Amino acid sequence: MVTSLNSAIPARDPGEQNVVAKVVVIAFNDVNIGSGNRQVATLPQGAIIIGTDSNTATAFNGTTPALTLGTNNPTSDNIVGAGVAIESAGFIQATPPTGTAIGPLANDTPVYVKFVGAGATTGLAQAIIRYVLKE
Questions:
Q1: Where do the H-state alpha helices sit in 7-122?
Q2: For the chain, what is the radius of gyration of the CA atoms?
Q3: Domain residues of the chain, as ranges?
Q4: I want to staple 111 with a disulfide (CB 3.0 to 4.6 A). Which of 41, 49, 74, 91 is the partner?
Q5: Upper half-sphere CA count for residue 12 (Cβ side, 13 Å)
């Protein structure tokens, strides 16, 4: 008697584990962007961040402009810690998380962005946070 024909997870099951992406838009004049208190997303419990891409659509001006992203408000620097250079338009791929953003998140977790620099009057970027969910 056959009790189970499909007892194993197939190697090519596309619904088994998918990469999820949150895309957030960041402008030079967003409220609280300089303080690190600008919440841009919430990641679910169990999320494992696998990388963050950034696309600077309009270059940010001012003094040494950079963006950091993190769950640790107000420093906001454990997802993208070193600061993504945003003084020229372009795409930066797969910045890995650091610190407490590594590994499965214990709870639903807010994500904050911080603008590092001064005097910006232009700038628009998108951050793409990619993660998988712990099974």
A1: none
A2: 18
A3: 20-133
A4: 41
A5: 0
